[in-house]
Amino acid sequence: MAWQFLKHAVVAYGGSVRSAIDHIKEAFGFDSASTPAQSRVAFTIAVVALAAKMSKADGVSLPIEAEAFKRQFQVPESECGHVRKLYELASRDVAGYEAYAAQIAHILEGQPDIKVSVLECLFHVASADGVLHPDEDRYLAHVAEIFGLSKGEFRCVRRGFVIDADSPYEVLHISPVASDKDIKARYRELVKSHHPDSLVSKGVPPEFLAGAGRRLAAITSAYEAILEERGQRAERALESTP
């Protein structure tokens, strides 16, 4: 089985998918003889199997997910039979997916950016029906863990496909594309307005301070999550800023 069918991304999915697949293809050397054929075959099989088993993670492997896989990776006619058979066999259960994830992690050792691109492609298939099932979510999180990706890297990819009401950006009421400077300023603003000392000075009754404390904790936790995602360290001194 060749890697050829992963060379052609579908226009319908937009630039993000094309970029992810092009990144995998170019960085891994599938357009040259630099990568041994055995590695290309092993990598291809592992990607197909991971996508297929993920479709079964929520208990039901849907035709729309198989179609999403076919559209995304543009399987050529000469490879359709092989890929379809492998996908059908792998989608019967999720057993053994960890081994395929570990195989990819080994092949892509020291290349975290390509692992992120693989994860992006898996997310496209998982979200084909418009819903990311909790079991699919856990499946992808475990795959990312096996890949050796950080929780921040996983959340960053996930945010491109899922809108969470309790995401750290939603907690701070700020856009995910906001600059580090703007996020820090927003955090300082929220800490100042929700800090118990500040509320007491404004005449807020003591019995309402417990709720404010929980809110402040949530704000601080969200800020730290964003910093972790962006590879920074939280400034804990801000937690006590009145």
What do you see in this structure?
With 242 residues, the protein is mainly α. It has two domains: 4-159, no CATH class; 168-240. It contains twelve helices and no strands. The radius of gyration is 22 Å and the shape is elongated. The relative contact order is 0.10. Mean pLDDT is 75; it is low at 1-18, 27-32 and 236-242.
Produce the secondary structure layout.
Elements: H1 15-28, H2 37-55, H3 63-73, H4 77-90, H5 97-107, H6 112-126, H7 134-147, H8 151-159, H9 168-171, H10 180-194, H11 196-201, H12 209-229
Helix pairs in contact: 1-6, 2-4, 2-5, 2-6, 3-6, 5-7, 6-7, 6-8, 8-12, 10-12
Q: Using DSSP, what is the number of strands? A: 0
Radius of gyration: 22 Å
By secondary-structure content and strand pairing, the structural class works out as mainly alpha
Number of helices: 12
Name the quaternary structure. single chain
List its salient traits.
12 helices, mainly alpha, disordered N terminus
Q: Would you kindly provide a brief summary of this structure?
A:
This protein has 242 residues and is mainly alpha-helical. The protein has twelve helices and no strands.
